[in-house]
Specification:
The complex is a heterodimer of chains A (111) and B (115). In chain A, 0% of the residues lie in helices and 50% in strands. Chain A has strands at residues 3-6, 11-14, 19-21, 23-26, 32-38, 44-50, 56-59, 62-65, 75-77, 86-93, 100-101, 105-110. In chain A, the strands form 3 sheets. In chain A, strands 2, 5, 6, 10, 11 and 12 form a 6-stranded mixed sheet that branches. Chain A has a 4-stranded antiparallel sheet with strand order 3-9-8-7, with no helix packed on it. Chain A has a two-stranded antiparallel ribbon with strand order 1-4. In chain B, a hairpin with a 2-residue loop joins strand 7 and strand 8 (74-79). Chain B starts with a strand and ends with a strand. Chain B has 115 residues and is an all-beta fold. In chain B, strands 2, 4, 5, 6, 9, 10 and 11 form a 7-stranded mixed sheet that branches. In chain B, strands 1-3-8-7 form a 4-stranded antiparallel sheet, with no helix packed on it. The chains are: A mainly beta (111), B mainly beta (115).
Chain lengths: 111, 115
């Protein structure tokens, strides 16, 4: 079956630090890959996505590249801000509706 | 648009009581999802509706859980009787297309505590 494994948190960083959250997946087909973000007290919202190998998703300074050879989709941001404090979820979908989520990684950015 | 609206935001109840969670999807969206989030199991898909019809309820934990979607603008998730292990955050999400994925919009969730 499909599964997503994320780097365990929590992660605590200083402002302007570099952020990486590792994500690897197992899937039978050729899934689409996603990063969702959950800010405190809110629901999840899509941060970025990639639908095929070597695609790079990007949004709000975050990037992730779909690596089929390493079955990975690591999330990166070069310079984090306090407002990036949130829980980040890696997810995959290999059909038209079912998302498999990772456990989530809590990121706290200190001023 | 107001987004996906869930109520209540918080629910505290005693074991054995009936609990009803409510969701109003984004107008025009034809797919609706109920998820449960716990520390132990993360995010789990409970049930998926398309055009008000349940398509996949394989994630519903047991017969104590039921979900309905009587029309395109309203859905309920009912737990009866509730048990302490049902304590979790329950999210409703909606989607414009038959698929979810990148077009999934989540509500703010209902924090359920069963004592």
């Amino acid at each position: 079956g499909n599964s997503v494994t994320q780097m365990e948190g929590p992660v605590t960083l200083s402002e302007e630090a570099f952020l990486t959250i590792n994500c690897t997946y197992t899937a039978t087909g050729y899934p689409s890959l996603f990063w969702y973000v959950q800010y405190p007290g809110e629901g999840l919202q899509l941060l970025l996505k990639a639908t095929k190998a070597d695609d790079k998703g990007s949004n709000k300074g975050f990037e992730a590249t779909y690596r089929k050879e390493t079955t990975s989709f690591h999330l990166e941001k070069g310079s984090v801000q306090v407002s990036d404090s949130a829980v980040y979820f890696c997810a995959l979908s290999d059909n038209d509706y079912k998302l498999s989520f990772g456990a989530g990684t809590t990121v706290t950015v200190r001023a | 648009d107001a987004g996906v609206i869930q109520s209540p935001r918080h629910e505290v109840t005693e074991m054995g009581q009936e609990v009803t969670l409510r969701c109003k999807p984004i107008s025009g969206h034809n797919s609706l999802f109920w998820y449960r989030q716990t520390m132990m199991r993360g995010l789990e898909l409970l049930i998926y509706f398309n055009n008000n019809v349940p398509i996949d309820d394989s994630g519903m934990p047991e017969d104590r859980f039921s979900a309905k979607m009587p029309n395109a603008s309203f859905s309920t998730l009912k737990i009866q009787p509730s048990e302490p292990r049902d304590s979790a955050v329950y999210f409703c999400a909606s989607s414009l297309t038959r698929g979810g994925g990148e077009k999934l919009f989540f509500g703010s969730g209902t924090q359920l505590s069963v004592l």
